[in-house]
Write the structure tokens for this entry.
Amino acid sequence: PPYSNEELEKIKEYTCAGVVNRVTRKEAKVYESENPKYNVVLWDFGTKENIIRCLTQRGCNVTVVPADTKAEEIKSLNPDGIMLSNGPGDPQENKGVIEELKKVCEYKIPIFGICLGHQLLALSQGAETEKLKYGHRGANQPVKDLRCGRVYISAQNHGYAVVDSSLPEHGKLSFINMNDGSCEGVKYTKFPAFSVQFHPEACAGPLDTMWLFDDFIKLIEENK
């Protein structure tokens, strides 16, 4: 065979180290809305610009902060809501972020997590993540909203997933992938937060789940 069993195991265990630190911004930056109503902190693990656009279009002044920002620093910005961005790599590698995020959840500030942010939020609450045998890539991944049974088409690009059976009692599975049944979303009941594995802001991707940003605004309004 072209590869030995040992070589195949090394390929299987392949991971990229320190990738969030390479893509996060190094200093905080504020993006202002033309019609500001809310202040949102966007925790940058490799954020896409369209997340910022989706927030500013909904009346949010957005303060984008680096991945290594401490919980106390985020609290000092007095945010109405906190956005956890997408990003690359193995979520379990970001132990410092997970510890700070655990503290942030105790502030009971509304949180919305996307992709890596979704995974980090789950890890901060004691859940587990796993490497998928086949990663989810592309703009045509079907996901099912378990609240109403509707299926949406989503854009995804990830190789890890939250293990739904490991979710805490206060973490409720909200979306599943229709291809492999894996976790695609979680709603938390102990504090105001929800997260999704897919990209609702996807540009150039389907717009099916853009309403999740509206749900985030509603969550902010309910907790002001």
User: Anything to note?
Assistant: Residues 5-222 form a domain with the Rossmann fold fold (CATH 3.40.50.880). The mean pLDDT is 95. The CA atoms of residues 58 and 217 lie 8 Å apart.
